[in-house]
């Protein structure tokens, strides 16, 4: 267990398959045993900063509740309200905050910003979403797949839509966990080539596979899990041409027909009904999006516990 102590989560690239599995197992245990003293006092006397450059509902609340549930105090910092909003360098902010708090959770427009924060901080840094990655979301999604499909290694999933932070993160966690991940995106909106290459290489070691394609029907055929995300992410330029390119990637009942009969539907939320997903699918019996949202809390408690508690 001690090997996770003091570690950051900027990208799940930095974590091994067994480390990810350990976090998921602890999350499952915490979900069923929320009141044990070992959890409630694990971070007693500690403080964790939460820095948000972009809006958030789930991440902000679930991290704050997770920190409190472990006995620590959250310190919430709005980007615009802090000196970061007036241009204080991240290098200085990282070193100053490291003198006060035991960990930092950050949601930022640019991935490089979070990498720089980690470089200069002397406490663990946790990525609460960047343009490149959303690691805690896909940890929650993995727990949800484990619960509903029953297993992770060998599970088949399709992500259909924009080749964004979620697509990148599904490829990485899927590869690490031996899953078969199909990604269907329009030609012009494919995930980043270096993350595809990284994930494919990683999948070779776990028996998983990563395939990137343009046909949503081909991607969804026979899978256990169908996932999508918004057409236009925070910080993206909203363009008619992008929406037009993504329109054929809507997850609707006709597309779900190609997946396994008992396939589950995932969406990190917030969802846009009638755009990337229909009301029928989002509110239908295959949708487990609120279990998925709940699982943010449990995986985040688990990661904070493993990285920040003193054993
Ligand atoms: N899924 C997710 O990260 O939601 P928020 O933007 O509300 O935090
Ligand atoms: N891809 C979305 C996810 C929101 C939780 C975004 O970056 O805005």
Automatic annotation (TrEMBL):
MF terms (GO), sorted A to Z: amino acid binding; ornithine carbamoyltransferase activity
A Pfam match: OTCace_N
Compartments where found: Cytoplasm
Superkingdom: Bacteria
CC terms in the record's Gene Ontology section: cytoplasm
GO biological process, one term: citrulline biosynthetic process
Keywords, sorted A to Z: Cytoplasm, Transferase
UniProt domain Aspartate/ornithine carbamoyltransferase carbamoyl-P binding: residue ranges: 7-147
Catalytic activity: carbamoyl phosphate + L-ornithine = L-citrulline + phosphate + H(+)
PANTHER family, per the entry: ORNITHINE CARBAMOYLTRANSFERASE, MITOCHONDRIAL (PTHR45753), ORNITHINE TRANSCARBAMYLASE, MITOCHONDRIAL (PTHR45753:SF3)
Family designation: Belongs to the aspartate/ornithine carbamoyltransferase superfamily. OTCase family.
Protein name (database record): Ornithine carbamoyltransferase
